[in-house]
Amino acid sequence: xxxxxxxxxxxxxxxxxxxxxxxxxxxxxxxxxxxxxxxxxxxxxxxxxxxxxxxxxxxxxxxxxxxxxxxxxxxxxxxxxxxxxxxxxxxxxxxxxxxxxxxxxxxxxxxxxxxx
Length: 116
Hints:
Number of helices: 5
Shape: elongated
Order of helices and strands: HEHHHEEH
């Protein structure tokens, strides 16, 4: 009879530990998203955090130009405010950019070479 009670206590404790761990992971994930909401990046921050440090021109050609219709602000899910020319910075909304990059990473030709 005591072995049955010990099994019940052990099962209860394992279940409780799983629930606490799941709740903590969920809380931390939401906290990270909340911290990023409204955060914007420069082109350099984006390429370092999402593009393996690829060259600025590489990012502009193989991501910004190639997927322009999907990522420009004004389009559903858009996260890129393009530069308007010399002296005008790119603006990138971090949360949307990270989400798009995660979902579309397989569509980017990471081995592509800049034209010479």
